[in-house]
């Protein structure tokens, strides 16, 4: 008899997930089966649910997980964590063989964007998920909002013993995305001054990691006082409420001349422009948030002030995740303070609704029993 698991399934014509029992997947060559302990609840998942990010349906969503290795598929190297090992996985699952992966640019993996995030399959062109009637379910990254997930072996990393299994799920997206923005988007240096527009899950991680990388002044900008309080706890030296004052003027008052790097973690045209205008001459603006609308760039500011705009989408999985885990293991940034809601799979829709209303401070995670 086929063993079943519970999974959050998104179907055609719906803006909610349905919890279904489906067969536990099996890993193919070069893949690992993980028993999911927790999966973060991310705005990208919400955007897929609402249809703002096009994705084939029916599908199982969820893309930042922690868990325990259950089994290896054929051909998986002995260096990959074995059964019983606590692990985390990043949302960017590198194929390891395309031209981008070959030059170390896992964040641009052709197969991830052209196969998984376009067609909802793994890299042999097929999905590992099916309903009990045999019909296929598409995969958003590894489809982590389930009890088990199949992950390419290139994206399975042993979790240091000092880190809690459930809370560490957010290392795979919220923290991973922030790390890529700090390391590659900003190329942040000790002593630099930064601003972070939007103190959500990614923004709070940027603040933590910027502090760990030696930023001396960190200005957090948000519209919600509770999120600014969280930003201060994460390491922000100044907090600006965009409802009460013009953020650009406030930043330039706090940091004369403007910041060296401004991070935009919301994906809103207005904050995109504000981040550019808050940047010092010769500085850098790093947009991280995705948007349904394009922003009108202040061209003269960019040209005359020599401001660079360096987009950042995640990090480089194989080289960056080990470094990130070492950094967190050393205590320079931690996932626990950023988790403010722990839910079961039956509460996913309510949590998405709260996320859409802006009520989630930090990150919510779905936990399996």
From TrEMBL:
Enoyl reductase (ER) domain mapped to chain residues: 13-366
Keywords annotated in UniProt: Metal-binding, Oxidoreductase, Zinc
InterPro entries reported in the protein's UniProt record: ADH-like_C (IPR013149), ADH-like_N (IPR013154), ADH_Zn_CS (IPR002328), ER (IPR020843), GroES-like_sf (IPR011032), NAD(P)-bd_dom_sf (IPR036291)
A Pfam short name: ADH_zinc_N
Entry keyword annotation includes Transport: no
Domain of life: Bacteria
Stated family: Belongs to the zinc-containing alcohol dehydrogenase family.
Protein name as it appears in the record: Zinc-binding dehydrogenase
One GO molecular-function entry: oxidoreductase activity
Cofactor(s) needed for function: Zn(2+)
Presence of the UniProt keyword Oxidoreductase in the record: yes
Gene3D superfamilies on file: Medium-chain alcohol dehydrogenases, catalytic domain (3.90.180.10), NAD(P)-binding Rossmann-like Domain (3.40.50.720)
């Amino acid at each position: 008899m086929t063993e079943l698991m519970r999974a959050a399934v998104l179907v055609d014509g719906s803006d909610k997930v349905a919890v279904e029992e489906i067969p536990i997947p099996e890993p193919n060559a070069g893949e690992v089966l993980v028993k999911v302990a927790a999966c973060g609840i991310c705005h990208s998942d919400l955007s897929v649910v609402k249809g703002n990010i096009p994705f084939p349906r029916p599908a199982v969503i969820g893309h930042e997980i922690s868990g325990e290795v259950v089994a290896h598929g054929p051909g998986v190297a002995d260096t990959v964590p074995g059964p019983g090992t606590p692990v985390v996985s990043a949302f960017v699952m590198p194929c390891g063989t395309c031209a981008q992966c070959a030059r170390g640019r896992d964040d641009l993996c052709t197969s991830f964007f052209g196969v998984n995030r376009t067609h909802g399959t793994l890299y042999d062109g097929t999905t590992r998920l099916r309903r009990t009637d045999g019909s296929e379910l598409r995969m958003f990254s590894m489809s982590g909002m389930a009890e088990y997930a199949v992950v390419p072996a290139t994206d399975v990393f042993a979790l240091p013993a000092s880190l809690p299994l459930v809370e560490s799920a957010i290392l795979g997206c919220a923290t991973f995305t922030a790390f890529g923005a700090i390391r590659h988007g900003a190329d942040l240096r000790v002593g630099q001054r930064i601003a972070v527009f939007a103190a959500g899950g990614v923004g709070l991680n940027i603040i933590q990691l910027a502090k760990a990388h030696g930023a001396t002044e960190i200005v957090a900008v948000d519209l919600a006082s509770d999120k600014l309080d969280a930003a201060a706890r994460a390491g922000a030296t100044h907090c600006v409420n965009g409802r009460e004052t013009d953020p650009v003027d406030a930043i330039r008052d706090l940091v004369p001349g403007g910041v060296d790097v401004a991070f935009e973690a919301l994906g809103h045209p207005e904050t995109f422009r504000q981040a550019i205008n808050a940047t010092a001459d010769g500085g850098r603006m790093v947009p991280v948030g995705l948007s349904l609308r394009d922003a009108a760039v202040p061209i003269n500011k960019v040209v005359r002030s020599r401001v660079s705009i360096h987009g950042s989408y995640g990090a480089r999985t194989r080289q960056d995740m080990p470094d990130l885990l070492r950094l967190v293991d050393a205590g320079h940034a931690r996932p626990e303070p950023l988790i403010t809601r722990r839910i079961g799979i039956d509460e996913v829709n309510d949590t998405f609704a709260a996320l859409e209303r802006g009520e989630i401070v930090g990150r919510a995670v779905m936990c399996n029993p």
